[in-house]
Amino acid sequence: MADKKITALTALGSGDLAAGDLLHVIDDPSGTPINKKISITNFFSDVPTAVTINPGDSNDVVINSNLTDSDFVVYNDDEEAFRVDSNNRKVTVNGAGLSTDFQVATSSIDSAILVDASADTINFGAPILMAQTAQSLSGAGAVDVTSQITHFTSTGASEALTLANGTAGQIKTIVHIVAGGSGILTPTTLLGGSTITFASAGDTVTLYYVNDTYGWSVIGQNGVTIA
Fold first, then answer.
1. Calpha distance 83→98 (Å, rounded)
2. Position 173 in a domain
3. Mean pLDDT of the 36-50 span
4. Is residue 14, in this structure, part of any structural domain at all?
5. Is the domain of 143 the same as that of 191?
6. Residue 53 lies in a domain
7. E-only strand ranges, 94-215
8. Percentages helix, strand, coil for the chain, rounded to the nearest 5?
9. Using 50, 70 and 90 to split pLDDT, how confident is the model at 150?
10. CB 163 within 8 A of CB 191
């Protein structure tokens, strides 16, 4: 075969690169340079230098674009720290159950959220804001189980309020924000009682849903009457 410059060789098309294809390498260029080859598989199995990917403006870095079951895994020294599990469609931090922590920082707080692997704790170093839109309920009606907070405005005396069973572990807070009367909440299942009465503005109750057997349990209250 006649000599050719590399620039004169036939180009591979996008998606035509195979694991067994070869790259041309000049080994030991500062000592005794020797022309060698390396397969795509061997090259990417152990890249011995820092790797910087800079695709430029409006370009994405895409991993596993051919919809296979290949995972994206990051190691912290000798332990698995981070895995994008394509088969189960989930992202796992510290899936090996070892000592890799998960930390989120803000502009002024280093550990706004810290999942401490060795201590088995989740620590919040920043204020926790309930950003979900509260349910606004005026007069009698159903307190929903989809919002974390309900703002109740009473418009008459002893207005009937209902609360369906929730999901195990769910927390629900009801705040009587405007007292134009009073409200009586009757949850479908309430542990240790059957009704919760809101008589004055500011009356508040926080409930925890245990399960379908025990229902809602009061874990905090201000001013309400439980009967």
1. 14
2. yes
3. 89
4. no
5. yes
6. no
7. 102-104, 113-116, 121-124, 135-138, 141-143, 149-154, 159-163, 171-179, 183-187, 196-198, 204-209
8. 5, 40, 55
9. very high
10. no
Sign of the alpha-carbon dihedral angle for 174, 197, 162, 207: positive
CATH code for the domain of 218? 2.60.120.640
Please give the average per-residue pLDDT across 150-162, as a whole number. Answer: 98
13: amino acid identity, one letter: G
151 and 218 in a single domain? The answer is: yes
**Among 122, 179, 121, 131, which Cα is nearest to 155's?**
179
User: Environment class of residue 65 by beta-carbon count within 10 Å: exposed (0-12), middle (13-18) or buried (19+)?
Assistant: exposed
Residues 101 and 176 in one domain: no
Of 135, 227, 137, the residue nearest 172 (C-alpha)? 135
What pTM, to 2 d.p., does this model score? 0.60
Say yes or no: 89 and 157 in one domain.
Answer: no
- The confidence band for 138, taking pLDDT boundaries of 50, 70 and 90, is very high
Question: Going by DSSP bridges, is the β-strand pair 183-187/159-163 parallel, antiparallel, or unpaired?
Answer: parallel
Where does the pLDDT of residue 97 fall: very low under 50, low under 70, confident under 90, or very high at 90 and above?
A: confident
Q: Do both 139 and 191 map to the same domain?
A: yes
Residue numbers of the domain that contains 83:
72-124
Residue 220: both structure tokens together: 């905090």
pLDDT band at 1 (very low <50, low <70, confident <90, very high): low
User: What does the alpha-carbon distance between residue 83 and residue 96 come to, in Å, rounded to a whole number?
Assistant: 10
